[in-house]
Structures are given as structure tokens and as C-alpha cells.
Amino acid sequence: MTIAIELGTTVAGAPATLDLEELIATRLLVQGNSGSGKSHLLRRLMEQSAPWVQQAVIDPEGDFVSLADRFGHLVIDAAAQTERQLSQAAERVREHRVSVVLNLEGLDADGQMRRSAAFLEGMFEVGRDLWSPMLVVVDEAQIFAPAAAGEVSDEARRASLGAMANLMSRGRKRGLAGIIATQRLAKLAKNVAAEASNFLMGRTFLDIDMQRAADLLGMDRRQAEQFRDLPRGSFVALGPALSRRPLPLRIGPVETATRSAGPKLMPLPEQVAEEVREAILAPAPEPTRAVPRRPPPPPPVDILAQLAAHRPAPVHERAAEPAAPTAEEIEARERKLDEVLRALLEDPEAAFRPVSVLYGDFLVRCRIRAVGGKPLELPEFRRRLAAAKAGVGAAEEGSAEWEEIRTRAAALPEDVQGVYQMLARAALLRLPCPSDAAVAQAYGTRSLGRARRVITYLEEQGMVVVQQGREGRRVALVELGWETAPGDADAEAA
After folding, report:
1. Cα(first)–Cα(last) distance of the chain, in Å?
2. N or C: which end of the chain has fewer CB within 10 A?
3. Where is the AAA+ ATPase domain (predicted)?
4. Would you say 17 and 247 are in contact if contact means Cβ atoms under 8 Å apart?
């Protein structure tokens, strides 16, 4: 079923429609100077498509928050959220399929770039089962994908530009349809603008912008002059979702109002010139500030006399030192830590997330479970995480053989230790050799080729010996003499 939404009317008075399904596959670029009607066009597009598809609006000026009252969009105030919170919120937005407006009003350019990048990356990195169609509208896109470096930090610019490039180039497979609007094509990064296949070009005056608009629409230089004469709210459309040839159209009315409407002309107040002169030029009253009286300086402190007069407090008045935890308390804490770590790794995507993200989530879960004692340091968390990914249980952890494995693994890079422990556990218990998919999961990647390179690296370091036979692959541990049972290298990960 083809869903056609009505943007407005053509010059001949016929309805100007947009194929929504084709738009999701081919993306849209809107260009026009300030006052040409870009925001009006975006509002019309979102209002007409709201019943059919989920929407997300990156709103730098807070113009689109009024969509919440009429169409139920969730408004997120980016100034009140951290980048991590926005990334998590973006994942939940796609999970619950809620339309949202990210209000960036009140933030400087650097803050807008950082928070919009975190939000876009959160929507981009969700699991495959959440890849449902979604329109992602970015107003004033030249802020988030500038063609040249500005006054913002290089880190914020790279993050924002990368997120916008992902949206426009790789977002289609994830169901994300980028709709970007800009005042000037010359200010927008070319690698972002080049990914759009549909165009709506509005009024513009600079020759360079008119020429670029004409080039995108396949028009010659003489036809480019028409962009200077377009009235407000009129655009020239081209693209598979709009028209196969350049089509002038006028955008229809909208149901919701913007908060950034320009000021209206109104008559000046009737005032007497002399009264206005006196009111404007009257001297400002001097602020009366009470001068605080400074207290007299304290007498000099005799440190030697204080030391001589000091006496230690009686034993019964001293604060009691905290008692050392008992063996039962230590065992209960370790049990809770293991439960939290297992619950953390139950998420299928946990194996592929950065260690820093998993560590932050782990600390939050520990506070929720009221795990006492000093929080785990990051190196200790890395060690436990590597062992957990390898499937190491309490029985192996306490054995003398495993202590030898841990000592040998410590000589390897941190990201490889988990893979070595997985192979060592299989060899110790005579289990089948882990498959490439299982090794990739322990290494934190989805690439089977990278998993095979990790095993090759361990063999080059003299840690393991790999044997290929008819029954499958075997891995033996150098010096220890343990060997896995044959395993299918192409099997799926558990």
C-alpha cells in the first residue's frame, strides 16, 4: 500500500503529494533562506505523516514543541539531561515507538552538537529487532553538520558530523529516514547533503546557493534565477518521492502554531516628547550599599601553647573503628556481585558494548541491589568481566589450575584475556573448542574474521596451538598440556 500525504498544491492547482514509503528509503533535503517557509514545510510534513510513522525532531530553537499538544509528541529538554541519559532515552524511544521532540533551546552551539549527537547515536545503535521506520527531522542542519570548522570544539564537531553522516548514509537500513533543512547549502557538509535523493528548494538570493540548488535539480543557469523570485511558502520539488521533474508547489496550511513567529507591525504609543526625553535621560539612582564593618582581627594563635596543652581524648570517647567484615559478609557480597554481573550480561548486546559503558551500568545496578563495601575498581571489573564472558564459574576460580591460567593471561592485552580464558576453560574441562562466533562474542565484536585473527594472535604469542582435523578444531595450551575436545568453528554462539 502506497501512503501519499498532501504537502500543498502545484501551480496548476492540483494536489502536491509525497510518497511516504519512498521518502523513508530515499531521504529529503530542504533548502531556503530565513523566512522562506522551511519550518512551515517541516511542520506540514510532520502533521500529515504523524498518524502513519514514528517521528523524531532535532529542534535547536524549540519551534516544534507545540506538536505535543496536538499529536502527542514527547518533548525532551536536552538542557536538563546528560549525554548518557539522552542516549538511553533514544533507545527507549525506538523501543516504545513514541514520537519525540528533542528541544535544544537554551544550549550553546557546542552543547547542542554534543547532545544531538548522543541522541542520534542512541537511535542508531539499537538492536535489529527495533529497526522500525522513523522520520528524523533536523532543522537548521548546518548547525549539526557544518561545512567548515567554527567556534565549537573539534570533539563536538566530529561527534555531531559523524552522527549526521550515519543518519543520512547508513540510517536507511535501520529504518531511519533523515529529513534535513538548511538555510544555505554552502554551509552544510557535502557528505551529508549528498545522501539525499529528494529536494525541496525554496527562496534564496546568493548566486552560489542558487547555482547549487539548480545543479541538484538538473536545471541550467538561467532557470536558477527563479529561486530568487519564489514567494514565501513556495518550493521547487524533485525526487522519487515527489516528482520526476522539477515541480513548483506551494505548501498548505498547518494545524499547530510555532513559537518563533516574527514580530508584527503595530502603531507607536502616543507620548509627549518632553516626557519621553526626561524618562530616557533621567540619571539612574545610585545604589545604596551598606558598608559592612569589619570585625577586629583575632589575636595571633600561639601554636606552641596549643600543642603543649593538647591531651589525647580518653579511650571511651574515641570513635569506634568500623569492624572488619566477617567471612559470611564477604561471601554474601561476592555472591551479590556475581549476580549483578550475570544479570548485566543477560542482555544479548552487552558483549558488544564498551567496557566503560558496562562499568557505569554495573555500578548503578550495585547501588540498586545495595551491595555493600567499596565499589569495584575498573581493573578488577575488567578481570571479572573477562572471566564472566569466558563462562568461568566459582569452581574454576578457586582451583590451583585456574590460578596458573590467570597468571598467564595477565601477560596478554586486556581485550584478549577473555578469549584466552575461554579457550583455557574449555581445555581444562575437556569441552568442545569454542566456535568463531563464541570467540567473537568474548572479544566484543560481531566480526568472525576478527575472532579468527585473535586466535591466530594467541598462537603467534606462544600461548596456544591450534589443530584442524576432520572432527573439528582443537586448541591446546602451551606448557600446560591441556587440550579441548574437537569443536565446530562455524557453529553459532550460545
Report:
1. 39
2. N
3. 24-214
4. no
- Pairing label, strands 100-103, 74-77: parallel
Read off the pTM.
Answer: 0.54
Cβ burial 64-90 (10 Å sphere, 16+ → b, else e) = bbbbbeeeebebbebeebebebbbebb
Is residue 386 within 8 Å of 418, Cβ to Cβ? yes
- pLDDT the model gives residue 269: 67
Cα 4 → chain centroid: 31
Residue 13 CB partners (closer than 8 Å, separation 6+): none
H or E stretch covering 246: strand 243-251
Task: Report yes or no: 444 and 352 within 8 Å, Cβ to Cβ.
Answer: yes
How many DSSP H helices and E strands does the chain contain?
A: 19, 13
* CA geometry: angle 292, 294, 297, nearest 5 deg: 170
Residue 475 has pLDDT above 50, yes or no: yes
Cell of 488: 565446530
pLDDT 10s digits, 390-444: 777 655 666 778 788 888 888 888 778 888 888 888 888 888 998 988 888 888 7
Cα separation, 424 vs 426, whole angstroms: 5
What is the pLDDT at residue 102?
A: 93
Q: In a 3-state reduction of DSSP, which class is residue 335?
A: helix
CA–CA dist 442, 376 (Å, integer):
21
Give the three cell numbers for residue 282. 533621567
Which amino acid is it at 11? V
Q: Distance (Å, rounded) from C-alpha 360 to C-alpha 356?
A: 6
Name residue 407's amino acid.
T
DSSP, res 411: T
Q: Which domains does the chain have, with CATH numbers?
A: 4-251 (3.40.50.300), 411-494 (1.10.10.10)
Residues above pLDDT 90, as percent of the chain: 12
